[in-house]
Amino acid sequence: MGKLEFSLDQIDYQILRIMQENARTNNADIARELGMAPSAILERVKKLEQKQVILQYNAKINPDALDQKLLSFIFIKAQDPIGTQKVGLLLAKIPEVQEVHDIAGDDGYLIKVRTNDAAGLVDLMRNALGKIQEIISTRTTIVLETVKEEQKLVIPTED
Amino acid sequence: MGKLEFSLDQIDYQILRIMQENARTNNADIARELGMAPSAILERVKKLEQKQVILQYNAKINPDALDQKLLSFIFIKAQDPIGTQKVGLLLAKIPEVQEVHDIAGDDGYLIKVRTNDAAGLVDLMRNALGKIQEIISTRTTIVLETVKEEQKLVIPTED
DNA sequence: AATATATACAGAATAATATTCTTTTAATAT
DNA sequence: ATATTAAAAGAATATTATTCTGTATATATT
């Protein structure tokens, strides 16, 4: 068969490690750090992008700077037609919703939402969520303080 | 007093919008897109970094490519000395733990964890979490499928 | 109002990088 | 053995980043 094949070597891992730390590290610097030619690194990076190992490069913006002070997680119980994720896709369309996960157990979703404040959250629930008929109930968890928030993956080492 | 002052204008927002889409967009391209000189854009980007509006640039790596197929959220009930977040800091040190949020309600944390598989999760709970004495109980939610996972913020428009 | 002071930006010059192409080497297949 | 492929070095050129200078505009000071 052959679904998706990655097959990364140690050099790829090192590139990923560097990119994960600072996605704007330039080619020449990566090359220097790994003791290789820039052209070789360029090829590898392009290949990593093509193979969808690197999905995208994003800037992490301070939510406070955009006055988005409230982070919440909401469990959503919904009656999706079996096997579909209609509700999930609708939820994903809401800009304030950063994550939508289909979770095991009581046929539901867990979503992560960022709003200006409590009023913004109420708004979102009333308007955006309110429009989705299939939603049966919700349970909201408010975040008081975030201690860590990264999406860095653990990259294997050679041993 | 004066905590942190941001104060961003429309041009800053546009830069953030571009950077949020692709953090490797180069200076010259941003300048072209906004119809400004590269030197002006460079100044602004540096200022955004200094002011901690842009916190970092990261590459989003495909978890599957690193064989990290299991995503879980774990609610952790813990008895932290009041006002401290000792447990939170200990949790944050675990590499597989991508997020640690101090949540309202039953003095607990919500963490987001990525492991290879169920065995990896069990391992982590037994070893890493097991070592933290203050943890009273945990409740784990397994993600079956992720519909959306971004950290893009909603950037204000001028109207 | 007149004069400083600071800020944002353009434009030009130069340093550094990206990108492309060619060649070599090594690994793998035939 | 002999192709074939993949990875990478190295060189040449196209693009960018970066620094510096000058100018306009706003903001403050007296």
From TrEMBL, chains A, B:
Residues 8-69 form the HTH asnC-type domain. Keywords: DNA-binding, Transcription, Transcription regulation. The keyword Ion transport does not apply. Pfam families: AsnC_trans_reg, HTH_AsnC-type. SMART domains: HTH_ASNC (SM00344). This is Lrp/AsnC family transcriptional regulator. It comes from Sphingobacterium micropteri. The keyword Translocase does not apply.
